[in-house]
Specification:
about 5% strand; disordered N terminus; two-stranded antiparallel ribbon; 6 helices
Length: about 150
């Protein structure tokens, strides 16, 4: 039987997150510009940006279906897609990410970013269309990256 993490009731909707868990003023300003752009851009760039933002998160293990090679793990797929996109954007992976305070856990997780490789190309070209791969593929196109060849 799988163990399910018990969520804390400390930060339920009736008890909002503490101030330090909320996005700050500078982050809200950037988020406001992003939302405005996504809501009003008519040239197709909003959809392209949405695909990039979605692909930055990467796949969850339970969502990866239809891969030709069953040995491919969620981690390998994330490195072959998401980490390459992050690298192409210039993200350096040095900012620590933390798990939700709802889980009452802190994790000094630094997001993966790395240059492309021949191994990544092999993994990407094994993709059968599914939800995440559609966003990742479109994000590659939006950024001028090649899906089936090594990117510099």
């Amino acid at each position: 039987m799988k163990h399910k993490a018990k969520l804390s009731t400390k930060n339920t909707p009736s008890q909002p997150f503490s101030t330090d868990a909320r996005i700050g003023k500078a982050g809200r300003a950037v988020l406001s510009q992003l939302v405005n752009f996504l809501n009003t851009e008519q040239s197709g760039d909003a959809q392209k940006l949405w695909n990039i933002l979605t692909a930055l998160r990467g796949p969850d293990a339970h969502t990866l279906v239809g891969w030709r090679d069953g040995a491919r793990s969620a981690g390998a797929v994330k490195l072959a897609t998401t980490a390459v996109i992050r690298h192409a954007l210039g993200l350096n992976g040095k900012v620590s990410m933390f798990l939700s305070p709802v889980l009452e856990e802190q994790c000094n997780y630094k997001y993966a970013t790395k240059p492309d490789s021949d191994k990544n190309v092999k993994i990407r070209t094994g993709v059968v269309r599914e939800h995440f791969s559609d966003h990742a593929y479109d994000a590659f196109r939006a950024l001028g990256l090649k899906w089936g060849a090594k990117n510099k």
